[in-house]
Structures are given as C-alpha cells and as structure tokens.
C-alpha cells in the first residue's frame, strides 16, 4: 500500500477550518478537502456536497460534523453520512494520517471508522 501523499503541514489548517486540495496533487477527478475539526482532528472528504453543487470546505465545521453552506445538511466527518435532510447520500471519505508535523492523504482509500472496518 502507498505511503500516502503529503498534503499539508499540521499548522496549515486551523481547527474549524478546511482546505480544498488541488486535484493535480490528489490525482482524483473530484476535489477532496482536508477538514480540521474543532478538537484538532483531521478528516478528508470529497469537497462537493452530495445534494447539489456546494463546497463543503466553505461550511461550518464543529463537533465531528461539517454543515453544508447551501442547504445546511450536516455530514459526519468520520464516515461522510448525512445527519439530516435535504442530502440523503453520503460523501466519500478518504484516509488521513498525521505523522509528526505532516498530514498525509490516501485518496480513494475510505477513512477508517470505529466499526472495525480495516483498510490495509
Ligand atoms: S447543496 Fe448541500 S445540502 Fe444542498
């Protein structure tokens, strides 16, 4: 398995903020954003909301969720599922690893969630 792609330094994204990653860097057709929860934890999700065309990186990030800026669906940062309407489909998650002061992304590899799911 790959070692991932270095996409940021830990201090590049403040808690409660997000960074849209260049698709040339992630080598994906769809933009991926790096989200930093208010507790400092990093997550990566597809940037485009599953409801309509809105950038989730422009949403409100708090307590393990990001709220879409257009119609306010909240998505779980850990597994991408919508927590309320109007979105009904999840957004894809991508595995993130923090190693020292660097943040690494594994595009296309689903984030590990605490349900026993194994990705390696
Ligand atoms: S575009 Fe995100 S909830 Fe409608």
**What is the typical, i.e. mean, pLDDT?**
94
Annotated CATH homologous superfamily: Rieske [2Fe-2S] iron-sulphur domain
Strand line-up across the major sheet: 1-9-8-4-3-2
Structural class: mainly beta
Name the hetero compounds present.
Answer: FE2/S2 (inorganic) cluster
CATH class: Mainly Beta
Architecture in CATH? 3-layer Sandwich
Task: Give the ordered list of helices and strands.
Answer: EEHEEEEEEE
Radius of gyration (CA) equals 13 Å
In total, the number of strands is 9
Residue share in β-strands: 25-35%
- Separate helix tally: 1
Protein name: Putative ferredoxin subunit of phenylpropionate dioxygenase
InterPro entries: Rieske_2Fe-2S, Rieske_2Fe-2S_sf
Domain Rieske: 5-105
Pfam families: Rieske
Descriptive terms for the model:
single chain, Rieske Iron-sulfur Protein, 6-stranded antiparallel beta sheet, 3-stranded antiparallel beta sheet, 1 helix, globular, disordered C terminus
Descriptive account of the structure:
The chain has 120 residues and is mainly beta. It has a single domain (5-112), classed as 3-layer Sandwich (Rieske Iron-sulfur Protein). 3% of the residues lie in helices and 32% in strands. The strands form two sheets. The chain has a six-stranded antiparallel β-sheet with strand order 1-9-8-4-3-2. Strands 5-6-7 form a three-stranded antiparallel β-sheet, with no helix packed on it. The longest helix has 4 residues, at 23-26. It is globular and about 35 Å long. The relative contact order is 0.22. Residues 49, 51-52, 54, 68, 70-71, 73, 86-87 line the site of FE2/S2 (inorganic) cluster. FE2/S2 (inorganic) cluster is lined by residues 49, 51-52, 54, 68, 70-71, 73, 86-87.
């Amino acid at each position: 398995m790959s070692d991932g792609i270095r996409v940021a330094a830990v201090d590049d994204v403040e808690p409660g903020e997000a960074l849209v990653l260049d698709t040339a860097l992630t080598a994906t057709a769809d933009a991926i954003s790096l989200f930093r929860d208010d507790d400092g934890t990093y997550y990566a999700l597809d940037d485009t909301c599953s409801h309509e065309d809105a950038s989730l990186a422009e949403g409100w990030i708090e307590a393990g969720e990001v709220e879409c800026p257009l119609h306010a669906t909240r998505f779980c940062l850990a597994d991408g599922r919508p927590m309320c309407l109007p979105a009904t489909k999840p957004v894809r998650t991508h595995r993130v690893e923090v190693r020292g002061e660097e943040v690494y992304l594994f595009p296309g590899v689903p984030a590990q969630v605490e349900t026993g799911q194994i990705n390696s």
